[in-house]
Amino acid sequence: MTNLRQEGRIALITGASRGIGAAVARLLASRGMRVVVNYRSSRDEADDVVASIVSAGGQAMAVQADVRDESAVRDMVEQIRAAIGEVEVLVHNALIPYAVKSFDEISWDELGGKLEQEMRAAFLMTKAVVPGMTKGGYGRIVYLGTVLSRRPRAGMIALGTSKAALSQFARYVAQELGPQGITVNVVAPGPVGETTIVNAVLEQAHQQNQAAQTALGRIATPDDVARAVAFYAGDDSGFITGITAPVNGGMAMD
Ligand SMILES: NC(=O)c1ccc[n+]([C@@H]2O[C@H](COP(=O)([O-])OP(=O)(O)OC[C@H]3O[C@@H](n4cnc5c(N)ncnc54)[C@H](OP(=O)(O)O)[C@@H]3O)[C@@H](O)[C@H]2O)c1
Questions:
Q1: Ligand 1: which of 12, 14, 17, 20 to mutate, judged by most atoms within 8 Å of the beta carbon?
Q2: Which has the closest alpha carbon to 183: 133, 146, 127?
Q3: What's the pTM?
Q4: Is the Cβ atom of 196 under 6 angstroms away from ligand 1?
Q5: What pLDDT was estimated at residue 136?
Q6: CA pair distance 141, 109, nearest whole angstrom
Q7: Using CB atoms within 10 A as the burial measure, which of 39, 61, 110, 217 is most buried?
């Protein structure tokens, strides 16, 4: 916990100790938000993200919680409320692990497990922050999706199917929460370099192949995605809700 000042929207970013979440935390803080860096086990990395924000003049604190755990999620939001106030902006980004397998190879436990955990985490996080947003008459909820929820790619059935469910969940929640001044959108990147999953799963040649499939000739950086997230997390997107926004350099043009 830190000595955060009083001004600036309170933004909670799940899974912000590295990758896209860390880039989002840094960008939102640079735009004046009070940022909460959630992590599950990477405390040192989360502390480094907070330190980099603070040294750049921003406001941040780190809070540990496993977003799949109901009581941990409730405790995290309570801890934030006690320290600085109600969460006004939720960027739900934490990466729930999944099997990279074909339909032929994958078991129900692997596919169903990813679906269940992906949706449980989004459900719990949303349930935890909506009462505070409703009280304030303002909220921005942004979920991280993927281009693979519209465009199948070999081995990605568990991720693509669960993120497609997340997009439809977002539409339902958006419809219900609109009257409370809360917008709900999904930012759906293509492959993003400099992230754990892409480094682990996509070798160099494969990354070049993915880049060649984009109109812009490269795969995204975490900062590319963070800028799109910041738009949906901010006031300029106030009349946009229930959409899944592709951030894929023209890899898929719907
Ligand atoms: N990278 C891509 O190419 C890509 C493309 C499209 C969409 N996305 C989506 O973008 C999001 C972020 O992906 P990324 O590649 O940036 O991930 P990443 O680099 O692997 O980082 C994952 C983050 O999530 C945290 N985390 C994992 N499980 C958690 C849990 N149960 N509770 C709380 N935090 C948890 C990790 O913290 P700990 O280490 O402390 O667990 C870490 O901060 C994901 O939703 C992913 O599906 C990524």
A1: 20
A2: 133
A3: 0.97
A4: yes
A5: 98
A6: 29
A7: 39
Look up the CATH number of the domain holding residue 144.
3.40.50.720
Instruction: Output the pLDDT for position 1.
Output: 47
Cα–Cα distance for residue pair 20/193, rounded to 1 Å: 10
Predicted pLDDT at 204: 81
Kindly state if the Cβ of 23 falls inside 6 Å of ligand 1: no
* Residue 1 domain flag: no
- CA 192 to ligand 1: nearest atom: 3
- The pair of structure tokens assigned to 19 is 């990758």
Give the angle subtended at the CA of 227 by the CAs of 243 and 198, to the nearest 5°: 90
Residues 2-35 as b or e (16 or more Cβ within 10 Å = b): eebeeebbbbbbbbbbbbbbbbbbbbbbeeebbb
Series of mean pLDDT values for 10-residue runs along the chain (254 residues): 74 98 98 98 98 98 98 98 98 97 98 98 99 98 97 97 98 98 98 82 83 96 98 98 98 90
Quick one: which atom of ligand 1 is closest to the CA of 66? 32
* Residue range(s) defining the domain that contains residue 153: 10-247
The answer to whether position 4 is within a domain reads no
Element (H, E) at 205: helix 204-212
How many structural domains comprise the chain? 1
Helix, strand, or coil (residue 5): coil
In angstroms, the CA 7 to CA 84 distance is 10
